[in-house]
Amino acid sequence: MSRVQHLISAVGMQADTGILIHKPSNIFYLSGYTGEGLLVLTRDMLAIVTDFRYVEQAQQQAPGFSVHAITSTVNHAQMAASLLKPAGIRRVLYEDDQVTVREGQRLAQALGDMRLDSLDNQPEALRQIKDEAEIALIEKACQISSQAYEYICEQIKPGMSELLIKRLLENRLLELGAQETSFSSIVASGPNGSLPHGIPGARQVQAGDMITLDFGARYQGYCADMTRTISLGQPSAKMKEIFDIVLDAQQASQQALAPGKGCREVDAIARDLIGKAGYGEHFGHGLGHAVGIDIHENPRLSPTCDDTLQPGHVVTVEPGIYLPGVGGVRIENTCVITQDGARSLVGVPRELRVL
Fold it and tell me: Rounded to an integer, what distance in angstroms lies between the CA atom of residue 170 and that of residue 145?
């Protein structure tokens, strides 16, 4: 059964119902197409609405889909309506969390008497369980990321700026086969390490700095995500202390990953360890998140997630401690849930690396 057929089944789609897909990640998942536009789906039609710039690309990437180009007088909503009306569609499911108010008004006007209802994130629900081909792509992205990590550890020297380290790291990801980075890489050194999503800047790394590297390759549409905190020379006693606590929390929570485990339960393992060590207020984010076509997907390892882990989930495990004015530590692996446990897709050691 194709992914579109799985979606049609999941929403219980009737003959008079159509689906519009606007999110780029869902368009790619359902069709393989990576350009701009939208998908128009019914039980009997697979169509891409785009513009002249992407027609050939859509035809190449999405065999089995008809491709329809807008014109100067017909916009995306009107083209979609022109495909749905002859098919006798009365109800249209759409991504109400993606479409803007203005786009929604334009869509409602074009569809006329057709009723608009929420698709309710059904494509994302299907995407949570990765198949073997998807897991292989994520694992390849993680392998590229691990190789780039080994490279950058050999390049970092005192006096290099965070921005230069980022550039060298991201260039190496591309040289190793990444199509792009999964997100803008984080390089946070010294006191900047207290910023969980610190933006690399002009600060030059110094002897004794801990340096947090959070990055990942995107390979054939799928993301990797890993974090290592390394030390440029011997770290201070305080930073070594928090590194050891974070490492313990990461290892314990990753070891607990297994089918049937609650996401909240796994998060609590790391949170309790860090809290008992006296740093609970300095671990303010969730333990992890799913990874796939998007860098942040569901389920989440967090105190607010009631989901249960299943085989095929790919999740990060990334506890951290962040001390304002001092620095921070985060350690992260991307892991796949298997039939009887889990395994990390990131191959490099988690222990402290002293450069």
Answer: 9
Mean pLDDT of 43-66: 97
- pTM for the full predicted model: 0.96
The answer for residues whose C-beta is within 8 angstroms of residue 105's C-beta and 6 or more apart is: none
Region 44-48: mean pLDDT is: 97
Check whether residue 76 and residue 137 sit in a common domain: no
End-to-end CA distance of the chain: 51
Is 162 in the same domain as 120? no
123 & 252 share domain: no
* Structure tokens, 328: 């921070």
Q: Rounded distance, CA 243 to CA 321, Å? A: 8
d(CA 347, CA 143): 7
What pLDDT, in 10s, does the model give residues 333-349?
999 999 999 999 999 99
pLDDT in the model for residue 144: 98
pLDDT at 121: 97
pLDDT, residue 1, reads 67
Q: E-strand spans in the chain?
A: 17-21, 38-41, 46-50, 66-69, 91-94, 115-118, 180-181, 186-189, 210-215, 217-219, 222-223, 226-231, 288-290, 297-301, 314-317, 320-323, 327-330, 333-337, 342-344
Examine the pLDDT at 64 and tell me if it is beyond 70.
yes
The residue range of the domain holding 231 is 132-344
Cis bond leading into 24, ω under 30°? no
| Domain assignment of residue 45, yes or no | yes
**Contact 283/274 with Cβ under 8 angstroms?**
yes
pLDDT-derived band at 83, boundaries 50, 70, 90? very high
Q: What are 137's two structure tokens?
A: 């792509």
Amino acid making up residue 306: D
Q: What distances in angstroms separate CA 205 from CA 96, 162, 210, 232, 259, one per listed residue?
A: 45, 7, 9, 8, 42
d(CA 244, CA 159): 27
* CATH at 186: 3.90.230.10
